[in-house]
Amino acid sequence: MYYTKYRPQKFSDISRTNDVADVIANQIKSGKTAHAYLMVGPRGTGKTTLARVLAKSLNCTDLKKNGDPCDKCSNCVSIRNGSFIDLIEIDAASNRGIDDIRDLKDKIRLAPTMGSNKVYIIDEVHMLTTEAFNALLKTLEEPPKKTTFILCTTEEHKVPATIKSRCQIFKLKRPTIKQIVSVLKDISKEENIDITDEDLSKIAEASMGDYRGACVLLEQVHDGDINVNALLNLSSKKKYVECVGYLLMSDASSALETVSEVYEEGIDLYVWVGELLKYLRSMLFIKSGVKDSGIDTTEELLDEIKEQSEKVEIKWLVKTISIFMEAHKNIRSSFIPQLPVELAVTEICSGSNGSENSDDLLLPKDPNIGKSKKAADTNVKKSKKEDTGPDKKMKTEKVEEDVKSTEEISDDSEEEPAIPFENVKEDWDKFVKDSKDLNHSLTTILTLCTPVAVKGSDIIVEVFYPFHKERLESARTKKLIEGLCEKTFGTKLGLKCIVNKNNKPVGLKDDDNLTDLNVVLPSKTDGKSILDAFDGGLPIVG
Fold first, then answer.
1. I need a labelling partner for 316 at 20 to 30 A (CA). Which of 95, 177, 284, 357 fits?
2. Which of the 8 DSSP states describes residue 165?
3. Helix ranges (DSSP H) in 111-176
4. Which residue, 370, 367, 400, is CA-closest to 462?
5. Cβ–Cβ contacts within 10 Å for residue 425, how many?
6. Residue 307 contacts by C-beta under 8 Å, 6 or more apart in sequence?
7. 421-533 has which CATH code?
8. How far is CA 141 from CA 166, 168, 260, in A?
9. Tens digits of per-residue pLDDT, 445-499?
10. Do the domains spanning 177-232 and 235-360 agree at the CATH topology level?
């Protein structure tokens, strides 16, 4: 394995992701090493490697002036081969109980046999039980002479504060793509691997800051004699770049097809949406004026990010990232994994495109909608009074058409709205989200509705199917809506629906039928039956 064959054996061999190696080397030179260390960092960043180099330096018989071990004496060779008796490596994931730590405490009293220092490396130390940590604590407080503990973890927050307070803590940073590429180039040169810098960059990016993972991928490419793109399934990257492009154009149909293709290719949507969020985050950085050096990605992808960033506003990016973050959380719990992503795409494309103000998402374009008939008539009179010139007749006819459209949803009465329509627009997303606690089938319908006005004590919403109107205006649903409105808007309100027969929701084709298949199973039913949870409408399976 390349990652074991080319594992650094000296402090000077360790890639300078950070200055941790230099600090520890200086401690070795001065003879002021600690009795306990805690190495913190993501997987594959070199925690165990650094611990072994430290163990070699503590036992080297021909230590170099810069603190490096000679890597030639018997002790160094034994440590490198894994036969050094005084170096004990413990995997806390497998030896996590109090009995394992008690056994360690019994053996630690014995003096070093081969070297001058006995070194204990405890990997994944956060996996120890509470009892085991308590047993280890006393040993860390008063360790025997010539004994050093090196604890390694990927999850520092799980290590008790009492343990951390007795250790010198060193945090290893995640390496950049350029740093990983540099290491891969050296390995490729030693192994006579003919590979382009572009392919090395792809491998480095796919490794996600993991030296070990990058070495494994390089070995797979070389030994298997296969294309890098085929190994890494880089089509997924192309897909999320395409998806963002469709979202910018508000092309829901193409974006939904892209999501479907990703799912059919067997790509984990949870991982894919995570990569999509990283891409959008990079766009946000570019739009916010962050320098290219602050974005860790390939040159090819950076060009795509810059190009698409020029077409959007920050508000649109913030809104889009928020929507996809919510979808990302729901993928694992969804009965239909792709549904949260599809709903996110539909929601984004239902609003304005990237060049417009995202605050206008899902808002009606008619300025009279949301006002009472009296207010609308006032606007008409005002327009008639102010309009002059040759276009007066045309403008008057247009205003009268708008009033007619408003009258269809406000009838002939002059009821004042119970709450301002602006309040409904602002809190509509919260209203829809809160409905999940009541009925998931209802949530699906509300997601496809657009509020257009408030008339008296009723919110007027636009729907696309007659059966949606029937469902929302049914007696049973009415009670749920009233309670939900009181919670969200502070007053009991009903829903009245107008059916838009001319247009379908964004993303649905003419022959598509919306069914309860679009329902996500609720995470809990609070003691209700499944039928009650879905209001009698079970999702279709198969």
1. 177
2. T
3. 130-141, 161-164
4. 370
5. 19
6. none
7. 3.30.300.180
8. 7, 13, 57
9. 888 888 888 888 888 888 877 777 888 888 778 888 888 888 888 888 888 888 8
10. no
Angle between helices 421-434 and 440-447 (to 10 degrees): 140
Instruction: Looking at the structure, give the CATH architecture of the domain made up of residues 177-232.
Output: Orthogonal Bundle (1.10)
Residue given tokens 């974005």 in the structure block = 295
Closest by CA to 53, choosing from 442, 42, 66, 238, is 66
What is the DSSP code string of 323-362? HHHHHHHHTTT-SSTTHHHHHHHHHHHHS--TTS-GGGTT
Which residues make Cβ contacts (< 8 Å) with residue 196, sequence separation at least 6?
Answer: none
Is residue 467 within 8 A of residue 448, CB to CB? The reply is no
Residues β-bridged to residue 450: 462
- What is the CATH number assigned to the segment(s) 2-171? 3.40.50.300
Q: If DSSP states are collapsed to H, E and C, what string results for 277-323?
A: HHHHHHHHHHHCCCCHHHCCCCHHHHHHHHHHHCCCCHHHHHHHHHH
pLDDT tens, 191-223?
Answer: 888 888 877 887 877 777 778 888 888 887 777
pLDDT at 38 over 90: yes
pLDDT in tens, 263-304: 887 777 888 888 888 888 888 888 887 765 556 566 667 777
| Per-residue model confidence as pLDDT tens digits over 323-344 | 999 999 998 888 888 899 999 9
Beta carbons of 16 and 178 less than 8 angstroms apart: no
Give how far Cα 302 sits from Cα of 67, 295, 320, Å.
Answer: 40, 8, 20
DSSP per-residue string spanning 192-240: T----HHHHHHHHHHHTS-HHHHHHHHHHHHHHT--HHHHHTTHHHHHH
Q: Which CATH class is domain 235-360?
A: mainly alpha
Residue by residue, what is the 3-state secondary structure of 477-540? HHHHHHHHHHHHHCCCCEEEEEECCCCCCCCCCCCCCCCHHHCCCCCCCCCCCHHHHCCCCCCC
Q: Which residue has the tokens 């390939």?
A: 298
Residue 280 and residue 321 in contact, taking contact as beta carbons nearer than 8 Å: yes
End-to-end CA distance of the chain: 45
Q: Is 507 left (phi over 0), alpha (psi -120 to 50) or beta?
A: left
Q: How many CA atoms lie within 13 A of 358 on its CB side?
A: 18
Q: Where are the domains of the chain?
A: 2-171, 177-232, 235-360, 373-410, 421-533
The residue behind tokens 């969020």 is 277
